[in-house]
């Protein structure tokens, strides 16, 4: 079984670049650092650190182990702090945390101000799922859910999405377009594995497979800038472009006969108490 102290020593060696500096930071002897690393490697049956002239680095194939080790240390610290004050960490998939969740977070934080500490982590949907499973977040607002076991997941809401084009695009003056008109237009975002990709398959059926995905820019802010620059069109949550639509920097174009909407989820571990902070926050979202 892995020892948490050995894991901390291992991470300190990697972050400091060497055994000597790690010993200095931890206030232990260098032989003790060496012993900790040996015992950790023995416990997992694999070399974890490679020494080079430039310093110490993760052994080939152990990069994922570094991330899990860091998660274990963070989780241990959360467990320690929870004994001093109840603590809720809310995970949010990108756009949900930026454009939708903030008012709920604030109102719930106001209610719990005297009894609990609240934090929010915003990241990609797949990374938030990993953090939920590892215990780094207690409850998560998600753009898609993969039905993994051991969790309670419910539909939070269906959030409208819109086709956006630059103000000088030929579609900007149209009352609507046909779904098939999207085929052949360069589309920014909407890859199959994303929440938008899942929504397009649900709403557009076979047409979604014929769309020309031009690039993935990693954030809605970048997507909006790219559309304004004329690099393509996109489909985004309506809440994320309200200001740009009001200022006429972008134009939304309705689709004939199709209501674009993304199904959003809230999920928490089934092992958490039904009257705990995570469950209460999930209930708070439904109000």
Describe the overall structure.
This protein is an alpha/beta fold and 287 residues long. The chain has three domains: 4-62, Arc Repressor Mutant, subunit A (Orthogonal Bundle); 71-156 and 264-285, Periplasmic binding protein-like II (D-Maltodextrin-Binding Protein, domain 2, 3-Layer(aba) Sandwich); 159-261, D-Maltodextrin-Binding Protein, domain 2, CATH 3.40.190. It has eleven helices and eleven strands. The chain has helices at 4-16, 19-26, 30-44, 63-82, 94-100, 102-111, 125-134, 195-204, 220-228, 242-246, 277-285; strands spanning 49-52, 55-58, 87-93, 117-123, 139-142, 151-166, 186-188, 212-215, 234-237, 250-253, 261-269. The strands form three sheets. Strands 3, 4, 5, 6, 9, 10 and 11 form a seven-stranded mixed β-sheet that branches. A two-stranded antiparallel sheet has the order 1-2. α1 (4-16) packs across α2 (19-26), α1 (4-16) crosses α3 (30-44) and α2 crosses α3. The model has no long low-confidence stretch (mean pLDDT 91).
């Amino acid at each position: 079984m892995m020892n948490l102290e050995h894991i901390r020593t291992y991470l300190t060696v990697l972050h400091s670049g060497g055994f000597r500096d790690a010993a200095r930071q931890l206030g232990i002897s260098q032989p003790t650092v060496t012993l900790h690393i040996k015992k950790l490697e023995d416990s997992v049956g694999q070399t974890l650190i490679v020494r080079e002239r430039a310093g110490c680095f993760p052994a080939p194939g152990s990069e994922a182990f570094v991330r899990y080790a860091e998660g274990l240390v963070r989780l241990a610290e959360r467990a320690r702090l929870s004994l001093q004050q109840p603590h809720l960490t809310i995970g949010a998939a990108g756009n949900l945390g930026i454009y939708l969740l903030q008012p709920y977070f604030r109102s719930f934080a106001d209610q719990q101000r005297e009894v609990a500490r609240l934090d929010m982590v915003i990241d990609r949907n797949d990374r938030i799922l990993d953090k939920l499973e590892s215990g780094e977040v207690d409850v998560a607002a998600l753009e898609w859910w993969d039905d993994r076991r051991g969790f309670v997941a419910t539909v939070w809401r269906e959030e409208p999405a819109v086709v956006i084009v630059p103000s000088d695009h030929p579609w900007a003056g149209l009352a609507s377009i046909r779904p098939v008109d999207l085929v052949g237009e360069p589309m920014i975002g909407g890859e199959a594995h994303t929440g938008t990709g899942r929504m397009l398959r649900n709403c557009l059926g076979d047409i979604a497979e014929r769309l020309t995905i031009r690039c993935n820019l990693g954030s809605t802010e970048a997507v909006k800038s790219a559309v304004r620059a004329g690099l393509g069109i996109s489909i985004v949550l309506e809440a994320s472009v309200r200001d740009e639509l009001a200022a006429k920097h972008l134009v939304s174009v309705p689709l004939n006969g199709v209501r674009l909407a993304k199904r959003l989820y809230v999920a928490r571990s089934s092992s958490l108490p039904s009257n705990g902070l995570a469950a209460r926050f999930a209930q708070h979202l439904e109000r």
